[in-house]
Amino acid sequence: MVPTDRVIKFIHYTCIDGIAGRMKTLTEDEIIEQLDEQEQLLNWLQKANEILFSAVKTYLPQVFVNNDPDILEYAVKPLLAKSGPLDNMDVSLRLLYALGKIKKTVYADIICLSQFSQHVQAENSSLSFHDEMTFDFIANLNAITENEQLFSAIRKMKFSSFEVFNTERYGNMIKTGLTLAVTSLLKELTNENSANC
Q1: pLDDT value, residue 162
Q2: For residue 2, is it within any domain?
Q3: Is position 150 within any domain?
Q4: DSSP letter string over 72-117?
Q5: Rounded to 5 degrees, what are φ and ψ at 127?
Q6: Which of 50, 128, 143, 171 supports an S-S bond with 184, CB 3.0-4.6 Å?
Q7: What InterPro entries is this protein classified in (predicted)?
Q8: Is residue 141 part of a domain?
Q9: Do the bridges between strand 19-27 and strand 7-16 make them parallel or antiparallel, or are there none, so unpaired?
Q10: In 3-state terms, what secondary structure has residue 50?
Q11: How large is the greatest C-alpha to C-alpha distance in the chain, in angstroms?
Q12: What gap in Å lies between CA 99 and CA 94, rounded to an integer?
């Protein structure tokens, strides 16, 4: 059993006068709380991507250096700084995947979350958690489909009779599933990070 106060550490980089920023530590509960506060699907996706990207940016420095302060300061920080080449989720993930530092399923899920968020935002769509497109999206996330009990419960509710089906309850179940997927991806990133240090 995993304790609920498990700490998932990641660095949140901010660029202030060219200097990269501060360490931010969040517990799993705080991450869940931040995601749960998002009422709209687009807001939820943006917050999830922000959290995941912060975790990716925390992992990246270990790919390049073995605690060499000069390399970290003069090579890695500029790469990760705002408007640096690795200040992009897709580029950073592709690099980690190409170097064999993250699993294919983790790479695919985070890219999928990022692209779905971009699609919802570009379409200026008012998609909600209970919409058909959202179900199609989660059906392609390994972090959800590999949790057979969760995915089965979502499918059963989606295809249940009208008396059992409740749009709000179904939307909340989707949101919970997505939140569990994000925490699972964060654990994979922090486990990869620990394994490769």
Answers
A1: 63
A2: no
A3: yes
A4: IIIIIHHHHSTTSTT-SHHHHHHHHHHTT-S-HHHHHHHHHHHHHH
A5: -60, 145
A6: 143
A7: MtlR-like (IPR007761), MtlR-like_sf (IPR038026)
A8: yes
A9: antiparallel
A10: helix
A11: 64
A12: 8
CATH number at residue 179: 1.20.120.330
Q: What residue numbers bound the domain in which 128 lies?
A: 7-196
With beta carbons less than 8 A apart as the criterion, state whether 89 and 53 touch. Answer: yes
Question: Which pair of structure tokens corresponds to residue 129?
Answer: 């958690």
Evaluate whether residue 62 is within a structural domain: yes
Amino acid at 170: Y
Q: Which of 103, 80, 72 is nearest to 192 (CA)?
A: 103
**What are the angstrom distances between the C-alpha of 180 and each of 33, 44, 141, 169?**
12, 13, 11, 16
d(CA 118, CA 98): 23
Amino acid at 146: E
pLDDT at 13: 31
pLDDT means per 10 residues, the chain with 197 residues, are 44 31 71 94 96 90 79 85 87 93 96 95 86 94 94 88 74 95 92 51
Token digits of residue 33: 């709380």
Beta bridge partners of 20: 15
CA distance 193 to 95: 15
Number of domains present in the structure of the chain:
1
- Centre a 10 Å sphere on the Cβ of residue 195 and count the other Cβ atoms it contains: 8
